[in-house]
Amino acid sequence: MNFNNIKKIIRDAFSECVGYVPDDDELLLSTSNDIPEAFFLYIFDYIEKQLGRSVCFVFHNTDYSIMTISNLAKIIHEQGINMKGNG
Question: Which of 28, 31, 15, 38 minimizes the C-alpha distance to 67?
């Protein structure tokens, strides 16, 4: 799956779970965006269901800076995550 498709899935997760889509480079954990921490469980559940695989590896050896749409998409893409049915 290409980088832009992964970003779309992440954006769709925010749209579905939060009701709006933050900017691609906005720090998602920022208090200015007012996303309750518990919502990230739903967001990551949505992403994992769309990809058909766990994405918990995004947190291995990283810090808070990973929490932007662009950075999440980048690390998922680098790990070769594919959609369901595509291996």
Answer: 28
